[in-house]
Amino acid sequence: MIRTLIVDDEPMQLQGLLRHIDWAGLGYDRPLTAESGEEALEMLSQSPVDVLITDVAMPGMSGIELLSACMVDYPELQSLQTLIISGYDEFEFVQEAIRLGVKGYLLKPIKTEALEAKLGDFRDTIGKRRRLEQETDELKEKWASSLDILRERFVSDLLEGRLESEGAAETWKRLLDL
Predict the structure, then answer these.
(1) Which residue in 37, 82, 105, 158 has a CA-CA distance of 20 to 30 Å to 122?
(2) What is the 3-state secondary structure (H, E, C) of the chain?
(3) Strands 4-7, 51-55: parallel, antiparallel or unpaired by DSSP?
(4) Residue 34's beta-bridge partner residues?
């Protein structure tokens, strides 16, 4: 399942998002919630998430500042899917959000269909990333076991005197330097 953190200083907005979105139907766990950027950073330090949805205008730390802190302080969150929700249709907010790698920007009042479409896109992206990570891990395991076999074969050839030609020794050198 996909883990989400929703950050908004308006409790009614948080409750509305929790109640009106079919999280389980979209493949998500019930979201974590925070009412400030500071609270969100504390939660992120304890519990990794896949998706961050944040309001842009909050007292203390804005959503933009939260995203910036995430990028600086949590390098493991570089693949975090991020969505800004805002009551402001101002270019400067959108421009800064894009600079920080935000994947979506929705204006309040949020349309359920628009948010669910974004969550579906995020789910697909996260699924592709997870499959790629799994395939990469499998390839690393195969490569490691192949390298072990190559080393055993090299030692065997060396002990049995089959490395007499310059070409054979050079081939083994290149293979084992991989």
Answers:
(1) 37
(2) CECEEEECCCHHHHHHHHHHCCCHHHCECCCEEECCHHHHHHHHHHCCCCEEEEECCCCCCCHHHHHHHHHHHCHHHCCCEEEEEECCCCHHHHHHHHHCCCCEEEECCCCHHHHHHHHHHHHHHHHHHHHHHHHHHHHHHHHHHHHHHHHHHHHHHHHCCCCCCHHHHHHHHHHHHC
(3) parallel
(4) 7
Sign of CA dihedral 74, 51, 48, 38: positive
For Cα atoms 13, 26, 113, give the angle at the middle one, nearest 5 degrees: 55
Tell me if 103 sits within 8 A of 82, measured CB to CB.
yes
> What pLDDT does 178 receive?
47
**Residue numbers in the chain where pLDDT is lower than 50:** 178
